[in-house]
Amino acid sequence: MGFMGSIFKALGFEGEQKVKIKKNKQPKATFKLKDGKVDRVEQIDGIPVYYPETLEQVRDFIDFVKKRKAIIISVESCEKEIEKRILDYLRGFVFGANAKFIVLNEDKLYLILPEGMEVEE
User: Fold this and answer.
1) Which of 8, 94, 95, 104 has CB 3.0 to 4.6 Å from 109, enough for a Cys bridge?
2) Are β-strands 109-113 and 71-74 bridged in parallel, bridged antiparallel, or unpaired?
3) Residues 6+ apart with CB under 8 A from 89
């Protein structure tokens, strides 16, 4: 942040927030499912990962984006029809909220960034 940036910040104008994602890094935390067979990532570079199985769960996760927090949604454990509905809902929300929808991994992992946030590579 240069001289002008500090002046704008002092006047109350905040710059765009940046989310840093490093592609070659291992996940920071994992947890086991109830059956103990599968490990799931809890966070990737500090951004929470959610595994919705119903459309109602996605609606709850969207509240985090409304509070200006980035989230990652994984649809790997969803049935095909529910996965399609979840993705349609997410795309509609992203369009309406002027957020960003970024595909991270083979159409199963999605990053949703609130308005004003950017990915720094």
Assistant:
1) 104
2) antiparallel
3) 55, 58, 59
| 110 occurs within a structural domain | yes
Residue 9 placed within a domain = no
Cα gap 116→56, rounded to integer Å:
26
C-alpha span between 59 and 73 (Å, rounded): 12
For residue 7, is it within any domain? no
Query: From first to last of its 121 residues, what are the pLDDT tens digits of the chain?
Result: 566 566 666 666 665 555 555 544 444 434 344 444 446 778 888 888 999 888 888 888 888 888 888 999 999 888 899 999 999 999 999 999 999 999 988 778 999 999 888 877 6
Structural domain boundaries enclosing 102: 16-120
The predicted model scores a pTM of 0.65
Within 10 angstroms of residue 82's Cβ, the number of other Cβ atoms is: 16
Residue 2 lies in a domain: no
